[in-house]
Amino acid sequence: MSEIREIILNSDRLATDEYLVNMGPQHPSTHGVLRMLVRLEGEKVLNIEPHIGYIHSGIEKMCEAISYPQIIHLTDRMDYLSAHMNNEAVALCVEKALQVEVPDRVNYIRTIMDELSRLASHQLWWCVMGMDLGALTTFFYGLRDREKILDIFEETCGARLTVNYNLPGGVMFDIHPNFQKRVKDFVKYFRTKLPEYDQLLSGNVIFRERTSGIGYLSPADAIEYGVTGPSGRASGFSCDLRKHQPYSAYPLVKFNEILDHRCDTLARYEVRIKEMYESLSIIDQLIDNIPEGEYAVKMKGVIKLPEGEFFQRVETARGEFGVFVISDGKKNPYRVKFRSPGFSNLFALNKMAKGHKIADLVAIMSTLDLVIPDIDR
Amino acid sequence: MTNEELIAYLTTSFPQTEVILGSQYVEMTVSEAQYHSVALQLKESKDSSFDYLFCLSGVDYAENMGVICHLESIKHRHAMVLKVRTADRINPSLDTISDIWITAKYHEREIFDLLGIKFNNHTDLRRLFLEDGWGFPLRKDYVDEIRIVER
Q1: Strand pairing partners for A324?
Q2: Which of A78, A112, A231, B62 is the most exposed place for a label (fewest CB within 10 A)?
Q3: Chain A / chain B CB contacts < 8 angstroms
Q4: Enclosing H/E stretch for A268
């Protein structure tokens, strides 16, 4: 609270019609513990200052004391909705450093799981986006479909959210005998349900009025602030790492990078909806062709990376996730840095929401799709 | 540009620096004094146009502190690493690059918070995650007897 007192005492910084509102740390639309100090003039937002660190867990420091396979288990505590992609980033980084080639089967399984995670994440985003704007119905529709993906995860690896399915050199278990059938059933089912999303929310007049033209982020600003993922692509920033730096089975599949040049909240919404169709098509191309073979390469009991620096970038549901490992040849890394998409995306919020009403701030925040542990790490 | 072309370009444009090919990216090490001007030129120059800073990390090397910038050009789709080390380890300071890439403003705040590197001319250098008065946890000599269990 001390900074509020400081600003109030320092009277030339706060005009008489202006006031400060604490949004959070417990606010429904922050989806976690994020506090924003919002400076308002009436309903108009003048400035936003995010205060983070409420769930800072020092993961980077912890990583320095543990081995590489153990690091994987910490990464899905960051962006828990993209848990599988985060795990994959560390696994790929270790494989790259040791120059291990994983079997094709692993690449296929990983990519299918990636896209299922992306779908689950976008479904959750869609349902809470509706809820933030006052449409509670979407919440039930979104979670209804997400539940089916989580059931597939549970059958595959025993966990629903923090999947921990990746290991350096492969995946932990082979896929369940039912996996292909269940995924195909789900894709068929979800293709019939996805148009419902559009009927419920996308075409709604109130929804379009509240999102269209709100929260403009220019393409240059998106690059400057490092806004990646669907939020960046809605500003016309071509940043899909599945296209530009393909990994796993992404070089083998055909899909479109969804770009939008309207740069507003509605664009960010529509990019994610269209991405769900792309994810379904990627799964379609892979699910029948999973090659036979081993599901993991046998790695040494103690994994030691050669001396040097290794960087691996993957595309999570929120944007670019990077793992930067500095190794000094020991079994634990010298330094690990996680480049989390949410961290960079969050700080573009001020740029987007300035001058809009406080209710629009909620809409803009929803389309950024923030996950707080991803920001705090 | 490919990595080889990038090395050739960087060695001719920045003769004072050290350019090598790392495990993945071209790595350029600059001195503290050059850091800001080199970064600015890397972004502004039409040939390199590194407009996207995708990662900024601080590292505690036992004898000094370092900052590592991962840069990418959206136009040319090439990437490189820019490295700098501070002279002093206890009170390290560097010029800010937040006036070049805005995203660096928040990454530098994070580095200041966790490693204690001061960035000169930074407009808003405050702690980000931790309280004032907390140590700098990512330093190698950080001791926290309560929360870190040594095995």
Answers
A1: A311, A337
A2: B62
A3: 79
A4: helix A265-287
Residue A364 distance to chain B (closest CA, Å): 19
Q: What is the spatial distance between Cα A211 and Cα A208, in angstroms, rounded to a whole number? A: 5
Looking at CA atoms only, how far is residue A248 from chain B in angstroms? Answer: 17
For residue A112, the model assigns a pLDDT of 92
Phi–psi pair at B88, nearest 5 degrees: -100, 140
Beta strand pairing status for B26-30 and B79-85?
parallel
- State residue A9's pLDDT score: 54
- Global pTM reads 0.89
* Residue matched to tokens 């982020």: A217
Selected residues 23-82 of chain B with any CB under 8 Å from a CB in chain A: 23-25, 27, 51-55, 57, 59-60, 68, 70, 74, 77, 81
Please list, in sequence order, all residues whose beta carbon lies within 8 angstroms of the beta carbon of residue A206, skipping any fewer than 6 positions away: none
CB B29 within 8 A of CB B18: yes
Q: According to the 3-state scheme, what is the secondary structure of B68-98?
A: EEEEECCCCCCEEEEEEECCCCCCCEEECCC
Q: What are phi and psi of A308, to 5 degrees?
A: 145, -175
Q: What is the mean pLDDT of each run of 10 residues along chain A (377 residues)?
A: 59 69 77 85 88 88 88 88 90 90 90 92 90 87 90 89 88 88 91 88 86 88 90 90 88 89 90 91 90 86 88 91 90 91 90 88 87 87
C-alpha R_g of chain B: 16
Pair of tokens at residue A127: 């349902």
Domains present along chain A, CATH in parentheses: 2-51 (no CATH), 59-376 (1.10.645.10)
Q: Is A104 exposed, middle or buried (0-12, 13-18, 19+ CB in 10 A)?
A: middle
Distance between CA A109 and CA A175 in Å, rounded?
8
ipTM of the complex as predicted: 0.90
- List the domain boundaries for chain B: 3-120
Q: Which CATH architecture has domain B3-120?
A: 2-Layer Sandwich (3.30)
Strands (E), A87-179: 166-167, 170-171
Cα–chain center distance at B113: 15
